[in-house]
Amino acid sequence: MTQPDLTCSSPPHWRVAVIGSGPAGFYAVGELLKQQEMPVKVDLFDRLPTPYGLVRGGVAPDHQKIKAVCKIFDRIAGQEHFRYFGNVEFGRDLNRSEMLDHYDAVLYTVGSRSDRKLGIPGEDLEGSHSATEFVGWYNAHPDYRDKRFNLDSEQAVIIGMGNVAIDVARILSHRHEELAQTDISDEALSALASSRVKDIWIIGRRGPVQAAFTPVEARELMHLPETEVVLEADALDLDPASQKFLQEEAGKDTRKNIDLLEEMLETPPREKKKRLHILFLASPVEIVGEQGKVSSIKLRRNQLVEKPDGSIRAEGTERMLELKTGLVFRSVGYRGEPLPGVPFDEKSGTIPNEQGQILEEGSPCPREYTAGWIKRGPSGVVGTNKPDAIESVKKMLSTLNSSGKKPLETEQVPDIAQLLRNREVDFVSFQDWKLLEDYETKAGEAEGRPRKKVGTVKEMMEVVRSLREG
Ligand code: NAP
Q: CA 153, CA 138: separation in Å to the nearest integer?
């Protein structure tokens, strides 16, 4: 009897590599695996053994509901023609030309792992941190495991008024009991238990109408059991340009923010243990130090001016303010980092692209694409990455399908897994990750927590290796 010809019954697939397993990466994989006419096989790479990017390492530990999106990602990962390669770093274990040798197309979804600086004196003093580091630390991200935050200061100052600033403020405000029920890192849990922070300042350079936080996140601040929100009495006396914007152009979220801020302003003081001050119209000009450590921050009060292009900008006045503090967080936005050998625009911190197709010196790269924050910059919520990723995948597939090329699979290009094995890279499969996840969940259950995260790559790999074998 002759064997059936399996190659005929299985049509050739495009092989696509996705670098970075955060939301943009997973949404792109989902879209790629949906293709029927010209099917796709996808390998998803991550430099960490663990997947999910900022959903694991960025979303605040008291926001477990947002993390439920991982169930969608798991369903995507459960499909045929999907493989996960965790613990594989682009640029260290594999490079750009090797990727292009093994795949028909490559999609970079590496996010924005760094942060923007303020560019003021004193930013490098001890006690001055980026919110990115603090967030990574309390979320047990291995990159920040060795960071230390001295929480002895009674005042903490957060510069910037986006949702990350709100996250940081909330984590500093919560009681130990609340944090102890989350998947916060053990280091952060114990440091925050002995925190002496009582007054937390969130400082925006512009006014309430321009605040970047969203209403759901702002509302939570009103329900912190031990912390009350404090605003200046005239905080909502809007300048004419902001008033006009609010009446004529503002979206739903901005209007809701103003309603919430009014509610906060009208709430009588409740003598709670901690205060969360939301201060508008102030820009930091210097972080002052004593013996190398932050001792205060100098702020210049601003007024808002409408520019000829219609934007409303902050302009410094003569009024100054100095807050005594030993702890400053800059929370003025994430920033993308270049990938070795991949085009990068230093100014925007993104990969130059057109609808997701990468541009190299202005010309489109036929086989390279990008999605997520490294494509558009650090904006939007988790779900924003879905349409963004779909746009890039559509561009990729229309370019591939009209290229006249045959999938590499038909030429029997070797499997990337072999190359990684030859290099002794101990990659983590999705099954391996599930073993680690199960280990973390069980360890968490014992303490009434959703999971207890393993905090270093070394320990993660030890757990994976022992469970794989057992
Ligand atoms: P963001 O939303 O862009 O906010 C950055 C803030 O920094 C703005 O208030 C901005 O003010 C201010 N800023 C920028 N440069 C400054 C400077 N030189 N001096 C003083 N202030 C400055 O960034 P993010 O908070 O890092 O958040 C990133 C993204 O993640 C956002 O889309 C956010 O919604 C999302 N996120 C969502 C959640 C959630 O859904 N729960 C949680 C965390 C993050 P101007 O407006 O004046 O520039």
A: 18
* CA separation, residue 329 to residues 73, 390, 439 (Å): 32, 35, 33
Specify the residue for token string 């967080």: 329
Phi and psi at 21, nearest 5°, equal -105, 35
3-state percent breakdown (helix, strand, coil) of the chain, nearest 5: 35, 25, 40
- Contact at 8 Å (CB) between 90 and 351? no
What is the Å distance from ligand 1's center to 342 Cα?
27
Burial of 128 (0-12, 13-18, 19+ CB in 10 A): buried
115: Cβ below 6 Å to ligand 1?
no
pLDDT at 411: 81
Q: Phi, psi (5° rounding) for residue 209? A: -70, -25
CA distance 294 to 125: 6
* CA-based max dimension of the chain: 92
Would the CB of 330 count as within 6 Å of ligand 1?
Answer: no
pLDDT at 1: 36
Helices 240-248 + 252-266 axis angle, to 10: 120
The rounded Å distance from CA 190 to ligand 1 centre is 28
Residue whose CA is at the smallest distance from ligand 1 atom 9: 161
Say how far apart CA 403 and CA 357 lie, in whole Å: 14
Tokens of 28: 């792109």
Contact assessment for residue 304 and residue 281, using Cβ atoms and an 8 Å cutoff: yes
Our CA angle for 384, 386, 391, nearest 5°, is 110
Mutate which of 118, 163, 379 for ligand 1 pocket (most atoms within 8 A of beta carbon) = 163
Cα–Cα dist 426/84, whole Å: 12
- CB 328 within 8 Å of CB 159: yes
Q: List, for residues 204-228, the tens digit of each pLDDT value.
A: 999 999 999 999 999 999 999 999 9
Mention every residue, 6+ apart, whose C-beta is less than 8 A from residue 151.
172, 191, 192, 194, 195, 196, 197, 327
Ligand 1 mean position to 331 CA, how many Å? 7
Among all chains, which residue has been given the structure tokens 């939007």?
Answer: 380
In this structure, the number of other CB atoms found within 10 A of the CB of residue 225 comes to: 12
**Ligand 1 center to 164 CA (angstroms):** 6
- Taking the centre of ligand 1 as the mean of its atom positions, its distance from the CA of residue 112, in whole angstroms, is 13
The pLDDT, as a whole number, for residue 145 is 94
Average pLDDT over residues 81-95: 98
